[in-house]
Amino acid sequence: MKDLLKIQNLSKSFTLHNLNKHIRACENISITLKKGEFIGITGKSGSGKSTILKSIYRTYLPEKGNLYYDSWKFGLLNLATATERQIIYLRQYEIGYVSQFLNVMPRTTARQIVKKALLEMGKNEEYAKKEAEKMLIHFELDRELWDSYPNTFSGGEKLRLNIARAMVKKPRLLLLDEPTASLDNVSKLRVRELIEQLKKQGTTMLGIFHDLEFMEGLCDKEFNMDKGIINSNQIAV
Does the reported pTM lie above 0.70? Predict the structure, then answer.
């Protein structure tokens, strides 16, 4: 299998000037994802897991290291040095990100949020509407909420909507940042079903989890992280 993403010696730290404190978020992280593979990263809160995902998505600019991504559009591209225009394109067409938090434009309904993800990819209105509704049904979001604004939703409803928006695009690379954090068991099962479906369709995934039971039988490889460093021993899955 060909590599889709190769992370080499990624390092990132933050300086809290008001506290005169320097925090090492992650150091010399090296992970390779092959096409169609699902890798999980575990570890305590604050161990640096999210920093890896945000560096790939370029929410954070890496301090050191390379992130080589095999793009449909651009070929082999280093995400650490890619232009803003390239990153915007990749987010729109190739790389999806599911966080624990939903950030959307105000006065945009749940249905519009999911549909817009497909319209941005050039899909037609009818296809986008149909697929958005299928996704909202899959995650059992009450139909009465479809045309409501998410600021009125519960934490679990917002998370389900966030997952629906990212997964409806069927991205080549999907980054999952605690995708089951505030979900009940039924909703977790829905997420798992969709992850399994995307994996069968060839989506490559990198996810961070606290819910080890959820990961069981889902990930091809698992790495444990502690104090910004990936433990040298890979955990068998």
Answer: yes
